[in-house]
Amino acid sequence: MVLNIITEDFENFYDIQDDLGSGQFAVVKRVRELNTGHEFAAKFVRKKKCVAGRRGLKREEILREADILSELAPHRNIITLHDIFENKHEIILVLELVGGGELFHYIAEKDTLSEEEAAKFILQILEGVHHMHEKNIVHLDLKPENVMLLEKNKTQIKIIDFGISRKLQPNEPTKETFGTPEFVAPEVIAFEPVTLATDMWSIGVITYILLSGASPFLGNTNQETFNNITQVDYRFDEEFFANTSDLAKDFIQQLFVKNPRQRATVVDCLNHPWIKPRRRKDEEERRNAQINMPSFKSFIARRRWKVQMHCESRTLRTVTTKKFDKDGNVKSAKVSERKGKTAIYEGQYSETDESDNDIE
Ligand code: ATP
């Protein structure tokens, strides 16, 4: 897809307003388009200065996000790209403004939420993901922070942050990506190729958290988390799942399947009776079950605290050093961000203090 990149001064077209958020290499600000008065969210992404530079992203990486967004537009559950600017230091993606905050924060304000309502939110995520998967695009960083509401107190979901998304190419395995430890699928940890099924695992994690307020694989360290994922070690503890329907548990079980080929696809999920009940019994089961709101609220409170303490779980983006065996499989690899603390050696994960250990 040919992108129209504007190289004129951004401020000739937009008035820059308050900060909306930030990521590892990006700052997102509210902006107002001068000739229409419409508001947008501008994502200012820093470009890497030189090949060996550690700050910023390669130009191609930033433009890949833009390319994917333009291929996906328009869809009611996916953020829309409006404009692209480039200057010496950064690329600016002008995105549709999503003003309703994170879905999970909105839910945490409520007193109760039935599974019927919860399933309708998951349905919207599935519809967005279905649109991506039809185009062979895999998001790879689906997590609660990337599911937002278009407007305050309205229920239309928008999926954001396509920063590590990929368009899968036939006969060309995609391996060099990561994601956020709590949400990644076993094949990502094993450095096997990612597929559309990789997103489905993360939808299982999101649903599990939404229903229970507990995180299925989260350990005390990234290494523990990765081990739990690799062993598919999760339970539906009564403490968290006493009011959860069997239908909802079945939906999650179909997603926590180690073999990506046997995992439920997005179409399977859209047809699952928890999402699309056909019998009155299923409809009633869903209507009568409730999400575990006290536990969900404390999950959100813990997350907010972690964000304030700057120790929230971040997207890991770069596979930096890898060794291959004679069949081309990864024998050992190290995953790190600029201040990353995660390393993988011989398929085993270990925590490391190295803060600038990436070779680019
Ligand atoms: P990460 O390093 O976590 O992958 P990132 O650098 O790719 O992040 P985004 O996740 O796209 O950046 O954006 C950072 C934050 O900015 C988001 O968590 C969100 O709060 C806010 N944000 C992003 N896009 C929008 C938007 N379109 N409208 C409103 N806020 C947005």
What does this structure look like?
A six-stranded mixed β-sheet has the order 1-5-6-4-3-2, with helices on one face. The protein has helices at about 60-70, 105-110, 115-135, 185-190, 195-210, 220-230, 240, 245-255, 265-270, 280-290, 295-310; strands at about 5, 15-20, 25-35, 40-45, 80-85, 90-95, 135-140, 145-150, 155-160, 165, 320-325, 330-335, 340-345, 350. Helix 3 (about 115-135) packs across helix 10. About 30% of the residues lie in helices and about 20% in strands. Residues about 345-360 have low confidence and may be disordered. It starts with a strand and ends in a 9-residue tail after the last strand. By secondary structure, it is of the alpha+beta class. The protein has eleven helices and 14 strands. The chain is globular and about 60 Å long. The longest helix is centred in the middle third of the chain and has 20 residues, at about 115-135. The structure holds adenosine-5'-triphosphate. Adenosine-5'-triphosphate (ATP) binds next to strand 2, strand 3, strand 4 and strand 6.
Rounded radius of gyration (Å): 20 Å
Distance between the termini: 27 Å
The helix-and-strand class reads alpha+beta
Order of helices and strands: EEEEHEEHHEEEEHHHHHHHHEEEE
Q: Provide the β-strand percentage band.
A: 15-25%
Summarize model confidence as the mean pLDDT.
Answer: 90
Ligand kinds = adenosine-5'-triphosphate
Number of strands: 14
Poorly predicted regions: 345-360
User: What is the strand arrangement across the widest sheet?
Assistant: 1-5-6-4-3-2
Tally of helical runs:
11
Shape: globular
Largest sheet: 6 strands, mixed
The helical percent reads 25-40%
